[in-house]
Amino acid sequence: MKARFTLTKGSTQYRNYRISVWALLILIFLLIGFAFVDVGSISIGSNKYNLSLIRLNKAIAYGVAILGLQVVVGYTGQIALGQSFFFGMGAYIAAWLVADHSWPFLLTLLVVVPSCFLAGMIFGLPALRIKGLYLALLTFGLASIFPTIVKLDSLNVYTGGANGKLTGYKFKAPSWIPLDEIAQMLQNIPLLGPFFGDGPLSNREESRLWKYMLFAIIATICFWLISNLIKSRPGRAMRAIRDNETSAAVSGINLALTKTISFGVASALGGIGGAIYVAEVGIASPDDFSSLVAIYLIVGLVVGGVGTLEGAIIGGLVYALIPDWASSTQSVAFVPERWLQGPTGSLILGILLILLTLFMPGGISTALKKTKKKYIQIQNPSLK
Amino acid sequence: MDLFLQRLFDGLTNGSAYALIAVALVLIFKATTLINFAQGEQAMLGAFIVLQLWNWGLPMWIAVITGMLISGLLAGGLERAIIRRFDPADHLPLVIITLGLFLVLNAVAAIIWRYDPLAFPQLFPHGSALTIGNARLSWYSIFAFGSCILVLLLLHVLLNKTKIGLSFRAVSSNLESSRLCGIKVGPTLQFGWALAAAAGTFGASIYAANPVLQIEPSIMLRALIFSITAAALGGLDSLWGALLGGLTIGFIQSVLVQYIPFIPNEMTLAATVAVLLIVLTFRPSGFLGTKAVERV
Amino acid sequence: MTNVLLKAENLTATYGQVEILHGISFEVYGNEIAVILGANGAGKTTTIRALSGMIDTTGTITFNKEDISQLEPDSIVRKGVAHVPQGRGTFPELTVEDNLRVGAFIRSDKEVESDIQNCYDTYPVLFERRSQSAGSLSGGEQQMLAVSRALMSRPELLLLDEPSLGLAPQIVEALFERFLIMNKDHGTTMLIVEQNAQIALGMADRGYVLEAGEIAVEGQASSLINDEAIIRAYLGG
Predict the structure, then answer these.
(1) Inter-CA distances, A130 with A138, B226, B276, C56, Å
(2) Mean pLDDT value across chain A
(3) Cα first-last separation, chain B
(4) Does the pLDDT at position A188 exceed 80?
(5) In this complex, which chains have at least 3 CB pairs below 8 Å with chain C?
């Protein structure tokens, strides 16, 4: 099939295309932020669907954690299911530093990242001996013990036990960012104005918007770093291990080092995701980091697309939005009410996981790429 | 001393239930070299089916057997519709599929039966069979352990003395040669899945029939980790190993953790995962597993 | 020698993107021993796997005048074709006796037990080890077991994939002598794929030389074995 447009890498055209795509993405991102900061819901029939920034902020948190899974599962090919452990670890460390030591949120990342990285490397050590299914078993076990660990009496002082740990942290947008003015401006656009709410932003809305941008910046940095890592030597080593461990070892790749680093990076990202999560919800509670969460993160990984960076973003959105929308759906024609009231979200995610693995193994991001290829073709200059 | 005995008895009770789920995991592993993460949920759903049949008026043991048949049929259908499409050597998609089944089955049970605990039929007589000092060995414990042995004996006969058992062992030993000997591999694996689901349903029914427990959709969530560890401890491809592993985990849980002062009570799960880690790192073939299974 | 038992016509097979067999045709007559010779990678194993339905092929395979090209391996065994795969293909976790029983899987007649006894009479060592696991046998013993296992299905045609591979010369000789006896005494038709041209041609009736997925030479074994040019060109002898 012939593409509608053909672009060559390195040409001016290609650069303009890249710049405009990025500009468009940032614009859409900001518009969504301002549009959904106050109301954030869409009504379809008698059902109201939440789109508020709270959901999107959670999506960013999940997205970063899923990015970690991309590194260890997608690129290194290790069946590690325990991401919720590090997600929880990051969340609890951040909550503890903020609540008990009054650290500002951003600073906690300086502790979260190295400690999760180290913990990940340590848990990666058995993976040097344990492979395939056995690793899946062990990491699943790891995921399931996290809640019992933070509920331990001896850790109560740090973790708050079964009640969870409140952070009590308020995000305040720096005054040099004219959030209010932008909001006013958008509200004055004819026709589309009402979509962006009414009147100046409340403190709460400003803080929410600021968090949204801040988290997005953190996430963007993570994605940028990982996309560079993947293209670099260690990234190639990871993919070599995924494709064939023996031939990777024979061609001089240090299996032990590459695997442990991959586990470390993945866990650090899990920790960052957890820190973002706790910054959004304001409390770290044990059951938010159960083995079910570990499975949901795998759902995000698979639905977005294993081994693709964009897949992590899609996966985060799927995880944050689908269970929520499912529980907001109170009536659908021909579906008995009972089937809408239980854990419908879990059911839908499970079905999605199975259907995508069966029929669309590349996930949504691969399907999108295929669609894009029909319209825009990117060539390598050397191919001419 | 009484306390110690009592804990031994408790370990026997829980260990028998874990062993039965572990047996189901082992059957699937032998058939498809796959760890079925949904095994616990399949068993839970099977036990709910038993409960439903009993509520509809079937005698309880008829309900158990019918429930085992139904869950076996369902599992056979799952194997045919989903599992068979995948290359057994490629683990990731299969692990993902079983995680998907885990979510779906758990949600379906919760939607149909809600989260409220329900009373399960009392399959075994009440009261204690044996009292030593203050330690009481209940009839339930004896029957739970006894039925566990019975199931294993039946499976042993089925696998070693029948033609379908022979084909099952052949397929799990060498898939290609099995086809060359005229064995229909697909239906044989399907039989393995059905057998595993039936054994799992039996296990969950025994577990739920514990007088101190009621049945609810999350009943097998914790038990799954214990059973997985039990299966790994036994060697993953050994049925009798699953029994040994199950009992060991039961005893670790009720005896060891209680008597080591620096391990808090809530750490049984963590202690189990630690056992899993140690076994997989240092002796992947477990107590009775085949050495060749080491590198999967 | 006009009764064609097996006939392959225009057989092609691809592995991934690569075509391994480029439309080969050959036949095996009833009661004969035919061999397919060729170097590594010539497509010998692919050919024999195509015959028993283990890989997808195009072309026609007829056995006893019946088209079996589209059948699954388990149905082809039931038609009377047994296959001893490369690397023995025994069931390592099963006992020797169970291996033989699996071999008789498609049968339900009363003579299975006496056939097992016959195997033991032929190879007393299998009787000694009947309750050991097949994985514990030596290479030669495993090959005996593999052949016995294949015979347990009472095949009309026995396909053997490199039976000499990895075995000591004396054991290979004994094995091939046994093939000859089976052929003469019981009339078992055999198609043997081999790299070891000398010993294979020494006992066979006819031979084919496979080279890069095509049949380069065919003829009576006695004439092939004496053709210096062929031996040198294709068989590295």
Answers:
(1) 9, 19, 11, 36
(2) 86
(3) 44
(4) no
(5) B
pLDDT by residue (tens digit) across B12-35? Answer: 988 999 999 999 999 999 888 888
Please tell me the predicted confidence (pLDDT) of residue A337: 73
* CA angle, residues A161, A165, A169, in degrees to nearest 5: 170
Question: Containing domain of residue A200, as a range?
Answer: 52-291
* C-beta contacts of C164-171 below 8 A and 24+ residues apart: C164/C194, C164/C195, C164/C196, C164/C199, C164/C200, C165/C86, C165/C87, C165/C195, C166/C139, C167/C139, C167/C140, C167/C143, C168/C140, C171/C139, C171/C140, C171/C143
The separation between CA C39 and the C-alpha centre of its own chain, rounded to angstroms, equals 17
Residues in chain B predicted with pLDDT less than 50, given as ranges, are: 293-296
Helix residue ranges per DSSP H, chain C: 44-51, 73-79, 96-103, 112-122, 124-128, 139-151, 169-186, 197-203, 221-225, 228-235
The amino acid at A38: D
H/E element holding A108? helix A105-124
C141 pLDDT band (50/70/90 cuts)?
very high
What are the backbone angles phi and psi of residue B37, rounded to the nearest 5°?
Answer: -65, -15
CA distance linking residue B117 with residue B109, whole number of Å? 12
Residue B16: both structure tokens together: 């028998």
- Asked if the structure places residue A380 within a domain, the reply is no
Partners of residue B114 in chain A, C-beta under 8 Å: 342
Cβ atoms of residues B91 and A132 within 8 Å = yes
- Residue predicted with more confidence, A169 or B99: B99
Gap between the Cα atoms of C145 and C101, Å rounded? 11
Report, as an integer, the average pLDDT of A214-219: 93
Nearest CB partner across the interface for C103, out of B172, B179, B181: B181
| Structure tokens, A376 | 């825009």
For chain B, the chains sharing at least 3 beta-carbon pairs closer than 8 angstroms are: A, C
| The total number of structural domains that make up chain A | 1
Question: Which helix (H) or strand (E) element contains residue C57?
Answer: strand C57-63
pLDDT tens, position by position, C167-191:
888 989 989 998 998 888 888 899 9
Residue A101: CA count within 13 A, CB half-sphere: 13
DSSP track, B235-255: TSS-HHHHHHHHHHHHHIIII
Decide the pairing of beta strands C206-211 and C189-194.
unpaired
Nearest to B208 by CA among B8, B13, B58: B13
In a domain, A279, yes or no: yes
- A322 at B interface, C-beta within 8 A: no
pLDDT of res. A169 = 80
Q: Measure CB to CB from residue B111 to each of A73, A138, A342 and give the nearest one.
A: A342
Banded pLDDT at A42 (limits 50, 70, 90): low
| B186 contacts in chain C (CB < 8 Å) | none
Please give the structure tokens belonging to residue A188. 């004055």
The reply to whether A384 falls in a domain is no
- pLDDT for A325-360, tens place per residue? 887 777 776 677 777 777 888 999 999 999 999 998
Integer Cα distance of C84 and C149 in angstroms: 8
Interface of B to C at Cβ within 8 Å reads 163, 166-167, 169-170, 172-174, 176-185, 290, 292
Instruction: Decide if A350 and B82 are in contact by the 8 Å CB cutoff.
Output: no
pLDDT of B102 reads: 95
pLDDT over 90, % of chain A: 41
A138 belongs to a structural domain: yes
Kindly list the distances between the CA atom of residue A106 and the CA atoms of A95, A306, B89, B291, C52, in Å, as whole numbers in the listed order. 12, 29, 44, 50, 66
Nearest CA in chain C to B176: C89
Chain A: residue nearest B235 by CA?
A134
At A221, list the tokens.
């940095």
Closest CA to C11 of C86, C67, C84: C67
**Token digits of residue B293:** 């299974």
Rounded Cα distance between B137 and B141, Å, is 7
